[in-house]
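Researcher: Following up on the earlier apo prediction. This time include the ligand. It's pyridoxal-5'-phosphate, with the SMILES given after the sequence.
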Amino acid sequence: MAYQGIIETYRPLLNIPEGMRAISMLEGNTPLIPVPKIADRLGGGFDLRVKFEGLNPTGSFKDRGMTVAVSEAAHRGAKTVICASTGNTAASAAAYAARAGMRAIVIIPAGKVAAGKLAGAIAYGAQVIQIDGSFDDALSLVVAISNKHPIALVNSLNPFRLEGQKSAAFELCETLGSAPDWLALPVGNAGNITAYWMGFKQYHEKKKTVLPQILGVQAAGAAPLVLGHPVEHPETIATAIRIGKPARGEEAVTAASESHGRIIAASDEEILAAQKLLASSGIWVEPASAAGLSGLIKEVDSGSLNLSGKKVVIVCTGHGLKDPDIITAQFTKPQVVKSELAELEKVILHD
Ligand SMILES: *Cc1c(COP(=O)(O)O)cnc(C)c1O
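Model: Understood. Below is the ligand-bound prediction.
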């Protein structure tokens, strides 16, 4: 049967209301792409693949959680959803709310949201409100609003978001025949690492497959879970993980330790280098999405991780198209040449 999206595919494994109608855009079922060149860069001798979540309908993994959160809100009769967002949650909430015929309100930190995300939220018809504060401020505000008014909160504090996001772990187990040995992913508000661990544990109980070790990676300027305390003014080029007080921080730390993994920090330079490396294998992701690989490189290069013979998966959470400005700012600029054959030959045959 044709693929039907994550709610219909995994309904028996999801803790959702009986009879809940699926608001879906056939999210999930994303490719697991082998990246042998990157494995070689890391010493070779192991199986390395990218779970490319940027290929979800709105360009990030957020759609997995949003299909469930918005379906559940609609099931309860909610007419409006609200979220705080560094960008991708906003675009996803806006799209699914539009599909459900609901109103979406998104609160974002002014000037800190990548162009493709902001454009998406507007295109899908959300009411976009910028505040002169951080993501963490925005989250406190939307929690207060949803407690006071009949407006459904669709941040990953909403447990239905995690129910949907577990599906990525199920897909990995099914594609690989078991969980990978290591899973590396970025950590921001920490809903995703929490959901993966829930999903792997659930699959493990059901099918007795192995459990992976999880490497969570924060940006060095926004690394509360590495430092062990909140960060008042988080700063990083990886705007999707520019979060100083992760809502699911405790669960994330538990996921890392229960899995015999860890949460580490990578610098913006290391994250950008990983973004380039992925692009050199044909996979263009936004900076935050490259954090998992940057952490893996760091651990292997420092000798703290031996991947020989292992199955390793890097979760690339969002598409590069979301954040085009970072490329024009950080990468080589296009050459400008006169429209003349000889001039073109000069630059093309240059070396
Ligand atoms: C939301 C997001 C993250 C962080 O996920 P959390 O669940 O908040 O930890 C990472 N990368 C991208 C592209 C995101 O949109």
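Model: The two ends are 52 Å apart (CA to CA).
Researcher: Noted. I'll compare it with the apo version next.
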